[in-house]
Amino acid sequence: MKNKTLLRTYKMSKSHIKTIMLVVVVSLVITALELINPYLIKIVIDDYISVGIYEKGKITVQMIGMAYLFIAAMICILDFINSCITEYVGQKVVFDLRNKLFKYTQYANTTFHDKTPTGKLFVRIANDAEDISALFKDVISTIIKDVIIIIAIISMMLYLNVKLSLISFVVIPFIVVTSYFITRALNKAYTHSKSIRTRLNTFLAESIYGIKLIKIFNRQIEKQHECEKTSKEFFNSRKITGIYEGLLPAIIDVLQDVAIIIIVGACVNKWFSIESDVGLIYIFIIYIKKLFEPITRIMDNIEVVQDSFVSINKIYDILEKEEYVEDLDTGKYVCEFKGKIEFKNVWFSYDKENYVLKDISFTIHPHESVALVGKTGSGKTTITNLINRFYDIDKGKILIDGINIKDINLKCLRKNVGVILQDPYIFARNIKDNIKLNADISDKVVESSLKLSSANNFINKLPGKFEYIASQRGESFSVGEKQLIAFSRIFAHNPSIFILDEATANIDTNTERVIQKSVDIISKEKTSVFIAHRLSTIVNVDKIFVLNQGRIIESGNHNQLLKSNGYYSSLYNSYYTTLAKLDK
Amino acid sequence: MMREIIRNTIKQNKYRIIICILFVGINIYVLTIPAKIIGYIIDLLYNIQSNEEIIVTNLIYLISIGLFLVLVRLVWKYYVTYLPRIFEMNIRNSLFSHLLRIKVSKLQERKNGELMSYFVKDVADIRAAIYNMISYGTRIIFTLVFVAYSMIQNINLHLTLIALTPLVIAAVLTFNIRKKMDKNYQISQESFTELSEYIQESTDAIRTIKAYHGEDEQIKHFISLNNKVKDSNYKVAIYSSMLSMCINICFGLSYGLTLIFGSKLVLDGVITVGSFIAFNTYIALFVGPVSWMARVISKYRNGKLAYNRLESILKIELELNDMKKIKSHESILKGDILIKNLSFNYPGFIDRALSDININIKQGETLGVIGKIGSGKSTLMNLLVKLYPVGRDKININGIDINDIPTDILRENICYITQDNFLFSATLKENINLFRDEYDDEDIKQSIKNSIIYDEIMNLPNNIHTVIGERGVDLSGGQKQRIAISRAFLNNSDIVIFDDTFSALDNKTEQKLLRNIKKLVKNKTCIIVSNRISDIKHADKIVVLDNGNIVESGTHRELLEAKGTYNKFYEEQAIKVEDSILN
Questions:
Q1: Pick from A73, A404, B213, B402: CA 20 to 30 A from residue B227's CA?
Q2: What is the CATH number of domain A2-324?
Q3: Could you tell me the pTM of the whole model?
Q4: What is the ipTM of this complex?
Q5: Which residues of B touch A536 (CB under 8 A)?
């Protein structure tokens, strides 16, 4: 597991290894410079001030001061360059990962999308990728540097005075332990309060979305109570974190004092016969303070590193599943379909266990119109999803114009098979682009397709007409209006095979009639497959397939099926009697 | 409004605020002491033998101050976290309460995302501003006062001035860089939002994208958005690094100058070595405050903007503002509805959504409303529950002008089932009783039996206590509609409205449901809005809406005989079927 994570991290960053090495080298230089500066002050204290001279062997105090200034400036500039580089690498890695992930989601097949909730994908692309940039910012620029600093300070101290160093290191385990525990407790508190915040935000978002419902049913007081309760919970989860946040630096400061006391105490009492001068004590105090900083920072960053590793794993768990990726490039480029569809003993299941379609065989000839009838769950929609290869079948064959659809280039196939879904998706773009959907279609065609679907009636009333930009998910449109747009889409794209999946459910009869006329005209030259609840809409098709529990139990045209007195005629009669009852 | 909320919160927490500020002050003051002690100890170290005792005393002093500081910091940190959260909570609650009472007509102008950002972003911005002021702002001020005072008092005025000059430069530089950084930060936030929306859309719409083979175009556009995010993030990072570089260079300068001039002062015998070292420690105490200054200002500015945005929301008119004018206080309304010469425009639209509507329904009657998309059906229903304001004497219920009926009483008496079947991520029970606890489980079960969804709900893992959206509990459109309809069976108001709530149901379920509804509304007034003749033909009266006008009205029979629009609908839906059977 750990190895896998490291391998993935390597894979992710291998194109930046050289840059990272450069960062490490620059960090080494910075660290060296940072250690020299306190040493310069030590020299000033011991060799000049304490002795009472301005100049020692041509080197004046001022010269050392200038050197100090120069080094300080160098540190800052190098630090700046270093953080620019790591930032760049971090952003670039995130950029590449996001692109890869997004590409994956676009090329992944429908099975993948059925299994993966969109919310989860969103978090992967937006947030998990972001977490990884922290890995670069904190780990590569900070942790590496911090480790170098710790090693350097410790060796410097040992070099200056071994005994004194060893005594002062006594405090280090305490820092490590306390910061580890406090950081852990703090993170736990944060996670807890984050989960409450998520709940609170979900509550707020839903209340806004359902505000009309709340108003209509007079539930303001109930919702207000819920808001206050969740808000209070969040508040309570948050207020305690302040104590933890204050505790750590306070304890670190005390430990620092303890270290100083140990150093001074050791020198004063000459423990272990330590000999020291004031400058040495000064530099030890400075070094010990400098040592505390990187240690606590590393403790802080452990969590960040863990989080980013978790994110890396989550992302690569998706990216490494190649079985879901659709092949859009290979296959026969068939540009024009005549429109003959054949199903030969097709078996299909979503989960490789429960067959939704069982041994389905039928032929639809070019320019024929066919309706699929059956209860919910009988497999109607599934059949349409197989024709454009949203799913691949388990057994049997599907042929279009005599070619197995598995051999046809996917893009060509889908270009030629047009589907209108039950709940069509409207993008937050203008109406025109919603109809073109990136395809090379002229404005004229868009306009005429809007007329064909009679969508122009409501679109002409919109500000800006077909330049009108739809709100997210087309929320400003009713389902009926969305379906009209979907119709225009399909008219504009003009595929050889039409599939209409209960597409007119939310359209009033008048509008439906207009569309029906257009569909009738177009379906004369095309193969069309309809799915509908309302039997009235399908009486005119050439052939009806009646489905029950994944099998075709009857087929024929409307009149034939009625005469055969089977399942269809019973469905039909139940509908007809309810309609006719009132008239009698 | 905002001012009141803030003022009240301050009043409620005045002691906490006082304690907080007091402890910040103590904290900063005490922080200057160790520097002094260490300096003193170092001076004593030059003559260890004779000073041993004093050194030990000072060391004890040092550690006791350290321990005392732990206590001070905990108190101060606690309140510094506590107080902004209290403000946040109060603002959020007041905002939410206000939102629940705002007029729907005013709300429609704003997108849901925008409303949400008031809660998530603006409330957080105000909290951040308050936090920055009481946590950093106070520390900046106290540091300036106490530390500078200690430097001048204990050490040397000239050295202080020399050492602090670079810090002033640092403060000025950070302001300028911070401004640029904030601007880029905003850009990066915006481009991230844009990217997020695009991801959301692309994953939601994946089937449409695939059906129209638009994958490559989607990817191309994504990469360009992603590039924007990368570049803007990078710019922010650069400015932020530049910020710390400036601060560090200025402090380096300050230390360097101290070294040059301080050592001279020591050599000249003006100050001691200990003072010189203490002085260095004092400078270190400025690192925080100097780098915080720009942040506090920018957070304050953001908070101010958020404050104004929230203020503008809180200024929006409330529904219940009309309470004073209201005469009637009857809490139960009978279902006589009289609509007289009603016309209506949506705010900002020129075309009339409804014109000259006249309808009269008596208690116990059922009205059917039929019409094309956009003919004004739902608008009419929205007006009945005062989601939009209507003029006087246009709609009377129970003989009272609805403007004279308090909104809550009106809505309590009208059970309006809307077209969009929105459900909360709560239990099914809560979605049916809508969080009001006066119904027991049996009532709920009865209502879901009536709305023909009993069996399906009972098959779920926790039946009526199943939480929607959890563990793959996903409901179809038809199921959602029936759950929404069960609310009507739970309600005992005298007026029930079904606004196109049967569209996703199959014929059989629909007919069963209509029979149950007929029983329910036997003595009630019922309005059924639908596209389908079969839903409304039993109604006592039917009106046909077209383009906001009533073009026909009467019973099913009368309307059929009139051979008008209604008859055309009917032919479409029924006659066609009949004909084909006869053939």
A1: B213
A2: 1.20.1560.10
A3: 0.76
A4: 0.80
A5: 572-574, 576-577
